[in-house]
Write a sequence for this structure.
């Protein structure tokens, strides 16, 4: 299995900011990164300000190295004022299909 | 967007049954179905008996029609004795990448 690190995040956007959060995530620098195997963005059907992302990386070290880069920190900085809170679970992708 | 229906499920397997649940899901008849756009299986890093699946379908009707088929009901029947419980959220995949 190529994935050795992952998580599922649920982000609560500030009211009305769900669209901006989704747009930022769909343009995340994680997506073209070769160590990022899964980056699935989702959204609550009932509350457009609840946004989810499931990530799977080749290793914790690869994710940490990416997270320290300027593009990753720029995304964190752009998201921060748009979010009221977030919660993580230790879900690690193991297989299936997506986009 | 091709996806108009989806959910995120967290299944608590009976103790020690997580491997069997994951194996059944990775062989699910949803995977080759053309109306199933996303079917991402995940697992808790901390508890191998906690299994997740994120699904995205072209429409609620397509999912309902699939769910009524014999292969889908056979999967439900195979999973049922392996599970202690499950919980759903209304997460609908909107984009990203995976396997």
């Amino acid at each position: 299995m190529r994935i050795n690190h992952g998580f599922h995040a649920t982000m609560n956007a500030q009211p009305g900011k769900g669209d901006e959060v989704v747009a930022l995530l769909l343009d995340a620098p994680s997506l073209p990164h070769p160590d990022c195997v899964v980056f699935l963005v989702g959204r609550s059907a009932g509350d457009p300000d609840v946004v989810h992302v499931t990530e799977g990386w080749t290793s914790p070290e690869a994710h940490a190295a990416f997270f320290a880069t300027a593009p990753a920190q720029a995304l964190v900085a752009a998201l921060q004022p748009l979010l009221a809170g977030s919660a993580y679970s230790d879900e690690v992708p193991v297989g299936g299909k997506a986009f």
User: Anything to note?
Assistant: The longest helix of chain B spans residues 70-79. Chain B has one domain: 5-82.
